Amino acid sequence: MLRTIPRADAMELFSKLISLARPGAATLAERNAALEADAARARAVEAALRDACAALEARVAACEADAARAHEQLQQEIQDRRRTEQSLRYSETLLRRLHEDLEDHIAERTSELTRTIGELEAFSYSISHDLRAPLRAINGFAAILRDEHADRLAGDGDALLMKIETNASKMAQLIDGLLDFSRLARAESMKTEIDMTALATSVVNELAGDEGTRRAVVTIAPLPRAVGDEAMLRQVWANLVANALKFSAPRAAPRIDIAGAATDTEVIYDVRDNGVGFDMAYVEKLFGVFNRLHRADEFPGVGVGLALTRRIVMRHGGRVWAESGAGEGATFHFALPAPPAARRVA
Amino acid sequence: MADDIDVLLVEDNPDDAEFTLRALRKANVALRIALVEDGVQALEFVFGTGSFAQRAGAPLPRVVLLDLKLPKVDGLEVLRRIKSDGRTRTLPIVVLTSSRERRDIQSCYMSGANSYIVKPVEYAELIAKLGDLVRYWLQLNEAANG
Hints:
Chain A is an alpha+beta fold. Chain A is about 60% helix and about 10% strand. Chain B is an alpha/beta fold.
């Protein structure tokens, strides 16, 4: 490691050396020797000074090189940052554009939906108003004919009139069913937490008073709570329980068991009956509008109940399914998304 | 001077008009009933103007049975005009329509309807409903203009 000597110190040292040499130099040889020695020292000092200077220059050069490197690095970093900012800005623009596209798309779909709902409303309005008018006329004139011209109805005239009236009533029921169905599509749902045990019990008590259902034994196990629209879910229970009562009525001892279970993701409810059941080959037709698996004279109904049930359950984000063997009773299940965990108490 | 009228029936469908008239007569054969077939006629009848100018100053009908879906001026507008006029505001109006749409029911009551009845598909039920209606509005109820 080289020691650097500051220039002022070096000069002082030099003059000190000279003054030291002179007084003691008696002879020429001694003075020459002394001068030689002085010169040698001076050369040594000069060499030391040169070395120090070189070292200094080397250090300065090294520092400059460091600074240049740092500068270069900084430039690189600035450039990188600039590039990053640019790509960020680009991404932002892209995102904004995507967002705008999405909003346009949503607005488009919303207006499409609004239009469809409007059409549906006009459709159901026309059903409730225009399709009923001719039915009222058919029923009304048949009734007047019976009231005022009964004496002139020959043979099976009265029975034929009855058929006209029965069919008009049936059509009125079909229209009501369709209306219920389309009304559901427009209804706003109001979701609350529901005690399903209480709801199922209330539905069973309501339906148990109906004719032909008094004989049935209905059991209700504790059911997990659900979150949903209470009026709609009441309709689901009513449809499933009424179906179970209807199809088990021919049995000597009709029996209906209602149970439920909760998994991590769903709450599942079952309505099991010991009725006439259905052939699993037709299970897909079960939930379609106006689809029936039995003849109308075997079991009453227009075939809207299960379609309505499925629609309600699907609107809640759930699913509905059934299983049976013909003559072996049937089980209908529906599952709804599990409510928040803290509330899921049976 | 025109005769006093018990029931003004506003109905454009001739079949429905016939059923309603028959059902009203079954409830009370002596009822004095007038039939008009669109909203303009209904307003002219009530206010004694236009084709019913001869009724100007005549007593109001005791009750109006009003269909909603009418040609020219619809039933809701007829209802609004009658209920927003000081001379006719107390006239009882019973809406008799085939619509059971919540929207229709609500706008009728908001516009001052006194009652709302859905036309039944069954004729026997119509007779029963109109029988109740005649008993309530023409016998039981005390009218504002006596």
